[in-house]
Amino acid sequence: MAYIMVDVESDGPIPGDYSMISFGAVLVNEALDTTFYGQLKPISENYIPEALAVSGHTREETLQFNDPKKVMSDFAAWLRRNCQDRPIFISDNNGFDWMFVCWYFHHFTGSNPFGFSSQNLGSLYKGLMNDTFKNFKHLRKTRHTHHPVDDARGNAEALLTLKKEYGLKIKW
To answer: What is the pTM of this model?
Structure first.
C-alpha cells in the first residue's frame, strides 16, 4: 500500500460553493522526497477573504492558477506513477482535506483514485495513545507554514515517528 499524506488550502469551507486553492501530497516513505503540488484556479465567484489569506495568496493570484481539470488529471497520473496499488489517503484533518480532493477528482476526472475512504492522522495518534485529548503535532519536524507540501511533509514525518518510536504496524 502507498500512503499519501495530503494537505489542502481553500478559500472557503466546502467544495463547489468555494474553491480548493492549492494542495500538496507526499508519498510516505523514509525519504519523503516524492511530492506533488497543485495550484488551482477558483471554480466559484465565492470566497472568504480570511480563509483565502491562510494560503498566503491573493484572489488575483489565484485567478492565474492552473485549470482544476488539468491539475487533478496530473495528480491522478502522479499517483499512478508512484503507487503500485491503490493509494491510501491520509491527512491531519481528513474531514476537510478529503472532501475537497474527493469532490474535485469526481467533478473534474470522473473518479477518485483513492476510492471511497480516507485515514485521519490525528485519530490514529489518539488511538495509539489511548487518549482522545492527545495531539500529534509535536511530532512534526518540518515547520507548519500553510504551504501544503510543507504541511503534508510535517504530517508524514509524524506518521514515520509513529512507526519508528511508537510501534505502529504500517507498511509502504
So the answer is: 0.97
